Amino acid sequence: MTEHPLLILDGACGTNLQAMRIPPEAWSGREGCNEWLNVTAPEVIIELHRRFLDAGAMVLETNTFGANRIVLAEYGLEDRVEEINRQAVANARAAIGNRPERYVVGSVGPGTKLPSLGHISVDALEQAYREQMEALVQAGVDALLIETCQDLLQVKTATVTAADVIARAGAEIPIMVSVTMETTGTMLVGTDIGAVCATLEPLPVWSLGLNCATGPDAMESHIRYLYHNWPRRISCYPNAGLPQIEGGRTVYPLGPAEFAQAMRRFVEQYGVSIVGGCCGTTPAHIAALVAALKGVQPAARSFDSREG
């Protein structure tokens, strides 16, 4: 995975699951807990993974965004953390089958409680991350992806924990971090991209980038900053545009062709080398992205003189 100059991730999990036919009994009264479907309806998760693979995705994210003890406790599943995470990895591997050069990254979401806002202690957050990450690493993921990060203290806690889990397991897998910048231009708790870079650069972070909240347009200034100031790989997997409410439902306005062209520009101009999609992106978005990036190489980057 690490040797590929350009990696293409899959697209959205939650918004695509909403459009799929899921047996009502699979939820067993836990509607909204997509991670539970790894165990109760693995065929649905495997099918979603296969759709993205058929579209050309090289990297699958496990269906484990909220598969930590804190989030699962909201559904009475706090004692099923290891089972759910291990099954999620197994589902992704089953979807890949014998396809060559396809990879599985363990998705680790921010949870529902942020330490900087006093929702949870750092120790409790660290314990929840550790339990999930240990299960993912032991199940054999190719990387850990700490994503949709909204709080710098949460990001640092998760990253330090990931490094320790990987070291204790004797594994050699990369740590990927993706933060979420709101339309205000900062993370939810007010941190700008410069502070994110300064905090994470000393840590063993293989890639840093952005996902969720907005479409690619609103991410450009942050991606440009990373291009000039972040010394390692850059990732970007936006929503299919800024979410809008139409007729009481959330819609994402950016079509596959527009999405793909915006991402191609990020690769060619800003050296982004890990791309994919977040909320609202379908297999059609990923297929368009694959086509748009055929023969494209990420822009070369230099750090002789950094700038903002």
Describe this structure in words.
This protein has about 300 residues and is an alpha/beta fold. It has one domain: TIM Barrel. The chain is built from twelve helices and ten strands. The strands form two sheets. It has an eight-stranded parallel beta sheet. A two-stranded antiparallel ribbon has the order 8-9. Helix 7 crosses helix 8. It is globular, with a radius of gyration of 18 Å. The model has no long low-confidence stretch (mean pLDDT about 95).
Features:
12 helices; 8-stranded parallel sheet; two-stranded antiparallel ribbon; TIM Barrel; 308 residues; alpha/beta; 10 strands
Helix-strand layout with pairing:
Elements: E1 7-8, H1 14-17, H2 24-27, H3 37-40, H4 42-55, E2 59-61, H5 69-72, H6 81-96, E3 103-108, H7 122-139, E4 143-149, H8 152-169, E5 175-179, H9 193-200, E6 207-211, H10 220-229, E7 233-237, E8 244-246, E9 249-251, H11 256-270, E10 274-275, H12 283-292
Parallel strand pairs: 1-10, 2-3, 3-4, 4-5, 5-6, 6-7, 7-10
Antiparallel strand pairs: 8-9
The helicity comes to 40-55%
Average pLDDT confidence is: 96
Poorly predicted runs? none
- Order of strands across the main sheet: 1-10-7-6-5-4-3-2
Order of helices and strands: EHHHHEHHEHEHEHEHEEEHEH
Q: CATH class, anyone? A: Alpha Beta
Number of helices: 12
Straight-line N-to-C gap: 30 Å
**Beta-strand residue fraction:** 5-15%
CATH third-level topology: TIM Barrel
CATH superfamily: Homocysteine-binding-like domain
Rg, rounded, reads 18 Å
The number of distinct β-strands equals 10
CATH hierarchy: architecture: Alpha-Beta Barrel
What's the shape? Answer: globular
Largest sheet: 8 strands, parallel
Q: Into how many domains do the coordinates divide?
A: 1
Structural category: alpha/beta
